[in-house]
Design brief:
By secondary structure, this protein is of the alpha/beta class. The chain has two domains: about 190 residues, Rossmann fold, CATH 3.40.50.2300; about 160 residues, Rossmann fold (3-Layer(aba) Sandwich), CATH 3.40.50. The chain contains 14 helices and 13 strands. The protein has a six-stranded mixed β-sheet, sandwiched between helices. A hairpin with a 5-residue loop joins strand 1 and strand 2. Helix 4 packs across helix 13 and helix 10 packs parallel to helix 11. The radius of gyration is 22 Å and the shape is globular. The two termini are about 40 Å apart.
Length: about 400
């Protein structure tokens, strides 16, 4: 099936989805057919055949039909809209900003490159610290930023609660802290507010989780037995996981999902045995869903060495080049991978950082859209090392839009 990209306002809101899950027991009739269809009748590319009615007409359960409709809307190219009022950043030239990330991988480095590029447009120097030592390295990054008199600190993929002490120390010293990926867009949490975080910048990972569930339900025709791999020490990963579970329960209550939480710092050592054990424990396992597609290299060998490799499909999120290339080749079991323009996220983070440095009110939502991809939609795209990601999303005009928003172009 083909996927069309969907903006948040075109989706059923996550709140409504969660509310509907709470009422599943009372509305089982609406989705009772999910998972009950026989493999007969007409089929959709990538899907088992739909069940046949007594008259011979192929049908799908209401849950599968809804999943297909939602998934199909996630393919359209991304478009940029101004997230907030115009600002003039020309007076910020010469300032230094520190970026501290939880790990070094294609995702963090691509976002970081966007942050650096956007900063350069305003003459702002960005120091990147791709920490690999967990919280202790992050603490050291904060200390370095303060000793170098950084004007702002950007934190990526660390929970505010885990870094509340250095964040409070920085903000009490007059250094604004901008979070990336703490939670979905919207108001700051009480934890953020207590620590003094200026704003959290993130796409909607609840949409990502819901869309992954949509694809799994549609692709399996309601016969999914899922291992979902979470990173519980990353805020957005937990949001994604909860949304996946809620949407799967809503659309396919007969589908199964087991969640295994692996901290980011332990991925290399813990993912292989976790996947191997899950395959042995569940002979019907047919989907593995990593919340971040960059988890795949850590468990790929364990999956390939198992007897289940041919029956297990993968659906993930973050649209990393290596996994998108596998999707393009039709290998590795990949059926779909979603994401957003990582470079765009970097520019959006700098938009929020500029506003903090100018003592402006934070923008509540930078409105970074999602797009999902399948084998058919990635054909012709370039996933080679260093290739720009903007073409994957239809070359959205966010850079020219931001430059105008920042009074750097007419």
């Amino acid at each position: 099936m083909r996927f069309k990209r969907m903006r948040r306002d075109a989706l059923v809101s996550t709140d409504r989805r969660l509310m509907m899950v709470a009422g599943l027991v009372g509305c089982g009739v609406a989705v009772a057919a999910c998972g009950s269809g026989a493999a007969t009748g007409a089929s959709t590319p990538g899907h088992p055949a739909a069940a046949a009615t007594p008259s011979g007409t192929a049908t799908a359960s209401p849950g599968v039909t809804e999943a297909e409709q939602l998934a199909t809307q996630s393919e359209a190219p991304s478009t940029w809209t101004a997230p907030g009022p115009s600002i003039d950043v020309k007076g910020l030239a010469g300032k230094t900003v520190y970026l501290i990330t939880n790990g070094a991988n294609q995702f963090t480095e691509t976002v970081g490159a966007g942050i650096v590029a956007a900063g350069q447009k305003a003459g702002v120097h960005v120091v990147t610290d791709y920490t690999t030592g967990g919280l202790s390295s992050a603490d050291q990054g904060f200390a370095a930023a303060e000793s170098q008199h950084a004007s702002a600190i950007i934190v990526m993929s660390f929970l505010t609660s885990a870094l509340s002490t250095p964040i409070k120390q920085a903000t009490s010293s007059g250094i604004p802290v901008i979070q990336i990926g703490e939670h979905d867009p919207g108001p700051l949490t009480s934890t953020d507010q207590a620590a003094g975080v200026y704003q959290n910048v993130s796409p909607s990972y609840s949409e990502a989780g819901s869309l992954m569930a949509d694809f799994v339900v549609a692709d399996s025709n309601g016969h999914a037995d899922v291992l979902l791999l979470n990173s519980p020490d990353v805020g957005d990963a937990n949001v994604e996981t909860q949304a996946f579970q809620a949407q799967l329960a809503k659309l396919c209550p007969t589908c199964k999902v087991k969640v295994d939480g692996i901290p980011e710092v332990d991925r290399t050592t813990q993912l292989p045995p976790a996947v191997s054990s899950a395959i042995v424990a569940d002979p019907n396992l047919n989907y593995i869903v990593p919340v971040f597609d960059t988890m795949y290299p850590d468990f790929a060998s364990a999956l390939a060495a198992s007897s289940a490799a041919s029956r297990i499909s993968l659906v993930g999120f973050d649209a990393s080049a290596a996994e998108m290339s596998l999707l393009q080749q039709g290998s590795g079991g990949w059926k779909a991978d979603g994401g957003y323009d990582d470079t765009w996220l970097g520019w959006a983070v700098m938009d929020e950082t500029f506003r903090a440095l100018l003592h402006q009110t934070a923008v509540a939502n930078e409105d970074i859209p999602l797009r999902f991809f399948t084998n058919s939609t990635v054909q012709g795209l370039d996933f080679s090392a260093g290739a720009p990601v903007d073409p994957w999303f239809g070359n959205p005009a966010y850079q020219s839009g931001f430059l105008k928003l920042w009074s750097l172009s007419s």
